[in-house]
Design goal:
With 243 residues, the protein is α+β, with helices and mostly antiparallel strands. It has a domain of 162 residues: Porin (Beta Barrel), CATH 2.40.160. It is built from four helices and nine strands. It has an eight-stranded antiparallel barrel with strand order 1-2-3-4-5-6-8-9. A hairpin with a 2-residue loop joins β7 and β8. The longest helix has 15 residues.
């Protein structure tokens, strides 16, 4: 009787145990274990407001974005320009307003060399020459040497206004074909100034090309003094050292 009771107890215990293969697989892969319902619901629940954390931002990202928004410099540290054009020259008496003589349209040359002050201003030397070859082998010229400035109202734009002041010379020089030299037949000096405007268009690496207009004025004082005016329309090529 005791033997029968022991066998019945052993059989009931074996029925309660899980199958051996399933137990071995559960040991090899713990993820197969059953998760309590409370734990599953807690895992699927979205995080609360306190548990949410904003992504950490790199403080240097703002600086990089600002650098990307900042326009690249358009102008280099210095400039050199060369221009050709046509100038209408006329003279009038000093003092009270007086009419100018009939104008003469002749070729002109201009040069410039200087440095940039930021992106809105250029300051440098400005040279100008109006010339007329006469029939007797003489060269008639109006030349100026000035300290000038170019102001760009929009730093990233091509429009500029310019002004300058310095000295001027009116001369008639005889060209000597034998020696390849010249000597003055007549010359007069005076204070000179100029105002004008222009527009630059990029045509290459650090190269700008555009039209310009200016008025050059020279006042010759003393007995028989007069004022000389040249209205010039030209085309200017500028190299500004920009990479």
């Amino acid at each position: 009787m005791r033997l029968f009771s022991s066998l019945a107890l052993l059989a009931g215990t074996l029925c309660l145990l899980p199958p051996a293969p399933a137990l071995a697989q559960e040991r090899r892969n713990p993820q197969l274990r059953e998760v309590p319902e409370d734990s599953a619901e807690q895992a699927e629940a979205p995080p609360s407001g306190d548990e949410r954390r904003a992504p950490r931002r790199d403080p240097y990202d703002d600086d990089d974005e600002e650098d990307r928004r900042r326009p690249a410099p358009r102008r280099g540290p210095y400039y050199a320009s060369f221009g050709v054009g046509a100038g209408s020259e006329a003279i009038a008496a000093l003092g009270a307003p007086a009419p100018y003589t009939p104008s003469r349209l002749r070729p002109t040359l201009s040069i410039g060399l200087g440095a940039g002050v930021g992106q809105s201003l250029r300051i440098g030397f400005e040279g100008f020459a109006w010339f007329n070859v006469t029939g007797d082998g003489a060269l008639e010229t109006v030349t100026t040497a000035m300290l000038g400035a170019r102001l760009y109202p929009i730093p990233t734009g091509g429009l500029y206004v310019r002004a300058g002041g310095g000295f001027g010379r009116y001369g008639q020089d005889l060209m000597d074909d034998y020696c390849g030299c010249s000597y003055p037949l007549a010359q007069e000096f005076g204070l000179a100034w100029a105002v004008g405007a222009g527009y630059e268009v990029p045509v290459g690496n650090g190269l700008w090309l555009g039209p310009s207009v200016e008025m050059v004025r020279m006042d010759v004082t003393g007995p028989g003094g007069y004022r000389e005016r040249v209205l010039n329309f030209g085309l200017t090529l500028t190299f500004d050292g920009h990479d």
